[in-house]
Amino acid sequence: MFIADAHCDTLYRIAIQHDAPERCMITAQRLAQGQVGLQTFAMFAGGQGVKGHPYENGQAMLAARDKPGVPLYLRALPDDPPGTPHGVLSIEGGEMLEGSLERLHEFDEAGRLRMIALTWNNENQIGHSSKEDSAEGLKPFGLRLLGEMDRLGILPDCSHLNEAGFWDVAEHAALPPIASHSNLKRLCGHRRNLTDEQVKAIVERGGFIGINFYAPFLSDGENATLEDVLRHIDGIAQLGGIDVLGFGSDFDGIEAWPEGLGDPTGFAGLIDLLEKHGYSQEDIAKIAGKNLWNVMKRAERARKA
Question: Whole-angstrom Cα distance, residue 233 to residue 246?
């Protein structure tokens, strides 16, 4: 079965934290063992926002992009999903662009970006994060950026974005909003999760929601289980989301996860649980990878450059 993952922080661990590739949760061997055909490698701007060195961090991660040992699609995706592990690149934290469309083109030309998480946990030139107590939407540069992302076929990732910013994306972006690594707020009240209304908007636009495996986003208690992952899948599916659901593991960016789901080899147990819970093979295939593949292909077809 083709499995795809919308988010990991492996490049940050390797390039910025200087961890050896073999010490990461994501390795080429584990991806192969877990039958992951497509892994999205995020280039994380760093925890200091605009006060840090987001652009320089991005350049360092671009330079380290081959170190995980996974071939990257730096041009068009193939017609069919790959049978062996491949990767694509994204940005997490739009401050990496330094408020410049030229920077956007620079990163896209070097790495063919598939999505950009407009914020991380800090305000930037684009907008405000879910961590802030802000009712303000996207800033003028954020709206300009959406238009250029539409032209380049880069999906707007609303994980970490505040709710007002999300609704600006839903209104102004031609491409559908996605949440690469977020869960359902009704089932776990963390600020990083999505309201039912946000989920419905993503469903209506044909976007994507990647279930995050970080325990505090899965359960309001101290620990999380595979059944908690299933709860969030069920909850979003019940809101009409079977065609937008997928995985956004956050591997290499989290320190707490459900038992048995600490690296890509754990996907098999999650797939088994979906089968036992009564999901059809068709719906499991969508959740496992086809939904993410389809929305990336849709974005690629919209590319005008």
Answer: 8
CA–CA dist 45, 57 (Å, integer): 6
223: which 2 tokens?
């620990």
Q: Tens of pLDDT along the chain (305 residues)?
A: 999 999 999 999 999 999 999 999 999 999 999 999 999 999 999 999 999 999 999 999 999 999 999 999 999 999 999 999 999 999 999 999 999 999 999 999 999 999 999 999 999 999 999 999 899 999 999 999 999 999 999 999 999 999 999 999 999 999 999 999 999 999 999 999 999 999 999 999 999 999 999 999 999 987 999 999 999 999 999 999 999 999 999 999 999 999 999 999 999 999 999 999 999 999 999 999 999 999 999 999 999 86
Strands (E), 153-207: 155-157, 178-179
> How many structural domains does the chain have?
1
**CATH number of the domain bearing residue 89:** 3.20.20.140
Structure tokens at 210: 């990647």
Domain that holds residue 18: 3-302
